[in-house]
């Protein structure tokens, strides 16, 4: 298969191509156009030219087209899920039942919402102030590889529904479904130039895109290192920065232990551990630490690692050999830092023949982790859990916050007062009490500290995709 750029509604061949590999089998899935400044400039010019007409389209008409795009995705869930699983190694049970259906929902949700954008009024004795919300213009939408289709639709849906035009740049490691999204947008009747897709490496295609003076807003999801670089490169623009995490999963002695264990396992091992909101630091009160560790390890060793196309598989391959090497380097580091390897490690999982050459790692659990160790401080972004004992509530809050990141957090306790106290004290954009991560499209999604700035979801998406204007009328 060959994947080209989509610029102004036309397939534009690359001057150069790179290969997208299936991380489970190493087979070449596609030759992908490698974009650079020329393609970015053409895509931004197309988006700029398409903007006035698209922005002026009455919201119900835009909504119809955006909803139609959702319908087209919903009609192709198995095919898109298969494509995403082949491209990323994310297991089919997740892509087919959760991630791709949710992508369709993103379009339905923002189609509805764009017809309901309202404003505020601030009457005074002398003036009537009211707010208008305008689309921003050309937006750069940049996505990572871990759940690329869902993440890109989470950006494309509000961006287009609110009347903006876009240049989407997917990760070079997972370009397949973005190419499909561009084609489906055209099929839905969204005019050429409204959604452009440029493929390529971050340095070659991402950098000229974020620097481009005609790009008014950047919605970026990716690593903290890249986020920092973009903020420096981009100049004065609107930003939404959804960055890395190392989220605390705090279990108090009075927690409903079975449920907490299930959720802890899910939050670190699902999505191959390649999840920004992973509960990767599992803080457990000392009085229950030994029992929790034993039962957590029992569950971790029962996890099926294998073919991502098998419905029973929970952990598929890491996205690339480079990423596998990074995850393995942390597994190797843990014991040297003084952590106890409780299960997993550097051995090879037992794999079906089809995926024998895949980028696999065993689900790994480290016990007796000190929060200052690198395995506890760095985002490993793989199926590696750190169990960290704590004394009491104050100690739990101190450890939870002793980290550069602040994306998500999880608190397990039956004490309602404590649940609210910890939720208020934890430095994170999101806190889930007695729950794994659940997404409601109205929630503000995003992080604080090194996990980013800005929030997306519901009216929070106004922040990046709409420009408020105050009108003051003299009375
Ligand atoms: P990455 O930062 O390496 O790349 C992300 C995207 O940025 C890719 O499309 C890449 O090509 C592009 N890019 C790279 N350099 C660029 C530059 N200089 N200018 C513009 N674009 C550039 O991240 P990744 O490895 O693809 O993804 C994993 C990271 O994403 C993890 O840190 C994870 O936590 C984070 N993530 C965050 C969220 C969230 O919502 N907070 C969600 C998913 C993933």
Automatic annotation (TrEMBL):
Domain Aldehyde dehydrogenase, chain residue ranges per copy: 17-471
Keyword vocabulary terms for this entry: NAD, Oxidoreductase
InterPro entries assigned: Ald_DH/histidinol_DH, Ald_DH_C, Ald_DH_CS_CYS, Ald_DH_CS_GLU, Ald_DH_N, Aldehyde_DH_dom, DH_HpaE
Catalytic site: 242
Record's signal peptide: none
Source species, domain of life: Bacteria
Family of the protein in this entry: Belongs to the aldehyde dehydrogenase family.
Record protein name field: 5-carboxymethyl-2-hydroxymuconate semialdehyde dehydrogenase
Annotated organism of origin: Ramlibacter aquaticus
